Amino acid sequence: MKKNLVIFGTGDIAQLAHFYFSTDSAYNVVAFTVDGAYLEKPVFCDLPVVAFDTATKHYPVESHEFFVALSYAQLNTVRKEKYLAAKALGYRMASYVSSRATLLSGNQIGENCFILEDNTIQPFAKIGHNITLWSGNHIGHHSTIGDHSFLASHVVVSGGVEIGEQCFIGVNATLRAHIKVGDRCVIGAGALLLADAEPNGVYLGTATERSKVPSSRLRKI
To answer: Which residues of the chain, if any, have pLDDT below 70?
Structure first.
């Protein structure tokens, strides 16, 4: 028998969470919830939407689990706050781990994690609470990802890396083995990190510049 699930959010990530939980998990999504000030429509994905401060009345904590489906807004602060608020109400927090992800022996996965397809999580890696791993990442052996972090697609985290809390790591970033990334760091798309990163650091990859030669002059494409 599937477990009942309430999802916080009515945006794109909430819609994706509804799809993944509904098609590839042991959960049955029964409703959505948002803060009352943002409750614009009573229905989302053909399911009811209720104000967060009334959620426990409609969907008791004894019979429902909870998932916060938010992005990395304000460096994951909003998702962190809603995760902690739902726990304070007494909800058990659900995690989604794709059946198409590769998890090897010794992995530890926390609460309210959203781990999509084609992630490879090597042995002894630890994934904290409230973590998003978008599709196609490599998480190396003995690495640790701190709570409330968000990794976009095709990130390479080499072995023995320690990533702090509330970090954002962009598409195609690469982290060298055995380095430490401090809390609240932003590692931009395509960045190559070869040494420790102090907390609150911003590390940006070099953007590709437009060529001076227009496409109309290319002859071999």
So the answer is: none
One-character DSSP codes across 154-200: T-EE-TT-EE-TT-EE-TT-EE-TT-EE-TT-EE-TT-EE-S-B-TT
CATH number of the domain located at residue range(s) 95-199 in this protein = 2.160.10.10
13/78 Cα distance (integer angstroms) = 14
Residue with tokens 């992630």: 119
pLDDT value for 218: 87
Please give the Cα distance from 167 to 149 (Å, whole number): 5
- Looking at residue 106, its pLDDT comes to 81
- Name the 3-class secondary structure at 202: strand
The structure's pTM equals: 0.95
For the segment(s) 3-93, the CATH number from 3.40.140.10, 3.30.830.10, 2.30.110.10, 3.40.50.20 is 3.40.50.20
